[in-house]
Design goal:
It is a single chain. The chain is of the alpha/beta class. The protein has a single domain, classed as 3-Layer(aba) Sandwich (Rossmann fold), CATH 3.40.50. It is built from 4 helices and 10 strands, in the order βααβαββββββββα. A 5-stranded mixed β-sheet has the order 1-2-10-9-8. It has a 3-stranded mixed β-sheet with strand order 3-4-7. It starts with 9 loop residues before the first strand and ends in a 13-residue tail after the last helix.
Length: about 170
């Protein structure tokens, strides 16, 4: 319910099926509540399907994303379930040790707005983790690993006073 969004410090929109997430958010009035809360400074993290949900635009016509993160996303960029993969990625703002990224029918970020910073890209240059102010987006599933560094990164975003994007220092 929309009133449950009021007062949250942060919200994670998880992986799953983006069309279903968007339809349910609209059915329960959460699209507008989440947009208002994010505009007021609530932290937001879109994971895989959640990245699709919070994007400004998609390469296809449906579903209509929330438009909260100035990126354009291509759904299922890496193929079907059978093409899922894991890889170690350097992530800006984390320690030098690569992050174990798990990609499951993952989207890809195909364009990035001016106020969005790329945190991680695949070797071929495809961005897969971005941040803008208190909004974080990952095309992969950090929750499927024992590595908590991205979760800690998100919690640190929530505590930032400055809501504008700023350069994330390499740790």
């Amino acid at each position: 319910m929309p009133e449950q969004i009021v007062g949250l410090d942060g919200l994670i929109i998880p992986g799953g099926e983006s069309t279903t997430i968007i339809k349910l958010a609209e059915l329960y009035g959460l699209r507008e509540a989440i947009a208002r809360a994010a505009a007021a400074g609530m932290g937001l993290w879109g994971v895989c399907a959640g990245l699709i949900v919070i994007a400004r635009a998609l390469t296809g016509n449906a579903p209509k994303p929330f438009g909260l993160l100035d990126i354009k996303v291509a759904r299922n960029w890496f193929g079907r379930q059978i093409e899922s993969f894991e890889t170690d990625l350097p992530v800006a703002g984390l320690s030098q040790e690569p992050f174990p990224a798990v990609f499951i029918r993952a989207p890809a970020i195909v364009s990035i707005g001016n106020n969005v910073q790329t945190l991680a890209s695949l070797p071929e240059g495809i961005p897969v983790a971005v941040v803008s102010g208190k909004i974080l987006g990952t095309a992969f599933h950090p929750e499927l690993t024992a590595d908590t560094r991205l979760h800690e990164f998100f919690l640190n975003l929530l505590n930032r006073k400055d809501e504008r994007s700023r350069e994330i220092r390499q740790a």
